[in-house]
Amino acid sequence: MPETQLTAIVERRSNKLFGLNALVTGSSRGIGRAIARSLGAHGANVAVHCRQGVDEAQSLALELSAAGSRAMVVCGDLAKEIQARRVAEEVLGAFSGIDILINNAGITRDKSFLKMTRDQWQDVVETNLNSLYSLTQAVLPQMTQRGWGRIINISSVVGQMGAFGQTNYAAAKAGIIGFTKALARETAARGVTVNAVAPGYIETAMTAAIPPDVKAKIVETIPAKRFGAPEEVAEACLFLASREAAYITGAVINVNGGVYL
Ligand code: CAA
Questions:
Q1: What gap in Å lies between CA 198 and CA 195, rounded to an integer?
Q2: Which residue, among 119, 210, 235, 101, has the nearest Cα to 158 in the 3D structure?
Q3: DSSP state at residue 67
Q4: 133 classed as catalytic
Q5: Which residue's CA is the nearest one to ligand 1's atom 13?
Q6: How far is the CA of 213 from the centre of ligand 1 (A)?
Q7: CA 8 to chain centre
Q8: Pocket residues for ligand 1 (CB within 6 Å)?
Q9: C-alpha 12 chain-centroid distance
């Protein structure tokens, strides 16, 4: 993406989300970081969650505070239900409510299926899918009580079309789509929308680990002929989180350069 275009996205500010409290999981880096920055830039109070990257999370929280948002850092391993619930409770206590929950945290443990260990399967499913159970259970009741909420789950194009070496990741990311649609039906009449964003291949540390030969082949298959920027995923989340997106629920927004149509 041309540098000037990207700068324009990052620097655009508004009070669109003023007064709303957001928790973005896995926001010390990558796509989550871009989402947290974007929500903060549009007036939301933001809880930056990390598992290990406390320094990065704190630097982002400082940046958001300097720009006028209320920001906090919360740490915990979301694969562990007790920690996931504590993360939610810390934010609920500090912000007295969560209006926007972005379930973004995710990991890969790529291996062709016959070589995949039970641990590689389990780690990915616990972190990428089961954490949605724990966090959403903790956050949803106060949203339905207030009659307003936005839950945005970060799936992946891999959950829609599969990928070599990613049976664990594809299963979890496809599971997120089913979860999103089912929960959307349960909460639509109570003012809470539930949507998924399915990024394609985005320039992050996760995709930087793809072997170069595999990466070159993937780029060839993308109609846009490039990987996406995290900020391009954040734009979709910003819209779904807004008051204006009230009538959109159960949707899956693809941000993938056309790799899956
Ligand atoms: N397509 C077809 N064949 C492939 C292949 C591919 N992408 N990758 C490996 N193979 C073949 C190998 O050439 C090998 O064939 P031979 O036995 O004939 O030599 C066979 O499969 C087994 O290869 P390995 O022993 O290397 O397999 P492995 O179990 O160690 O797994 C891998 C290799 C980890 C899958 C590696 O290929 C890899 O890292 N691939 C990239 C996976 C990927 O795309 N990850 C995306 C991360 S980004 C992300 O997930 C974000 C998102 O949401 C999009």
A1: 10
A2: 210
A3: T
A4: no
A5: 214
A6: 10
A7: 22
A8: 108, 110-112, 115, 156-158, 163-166, 169, 201, 206-207, 210-211, 214
A9: 20
- Percent of the residues in the chain that have a pLDDT greater than 70, as a whole number: 95
What's residue 91's pLDDT?
A: 98
Ligand 1 closest atom vs CA 116: 29
Q: Is the pLDDT of residue 9 over 80?
A: no
pTM to 2 decimal places: 0.94
| Closest ligand 1 atom number to CA of residue 163 | 44
Q: Which tokens go with 232?
A: 């391009």
Task: Say how far apart CA 109 and CA 119 lie, in whole Å.
Answer: 9
Rounded mean pLDDT, 111-115: 98
Residue 5: pLDDT above 60? no
154-159 average pLDDT score: 98
Cα of first residue to Cα of last residue in the chain, in angstroms, is: 21
- At residue 14, the pLDDT reads 85
Residue pointed to by tokens 């159960």: 250
Active site residue: 133, 169, 201, 260, which one?
A: 169
For strand 100-103 and strand 252-255, is the pairing parallel, antiparallel, or unpaired?
unpaired
pLDDT value of residue 256: 98
CA distance 140 to 75: 20
Tokens representing residue 183 in the block: 């929960």
Atom 23 (ligand 1) nearest CA: 112
What is the model's pLDDT at position 2? Answer: 56
Query: Within 13 Å of residue 232, how many CA atoms lie on the same side as its CB?
Result: 20
Give the residue, out of 104, 109, 112, with the most ligand 1 atoms within 8 A of its beta carbon, to mutate for a pocket test: 112
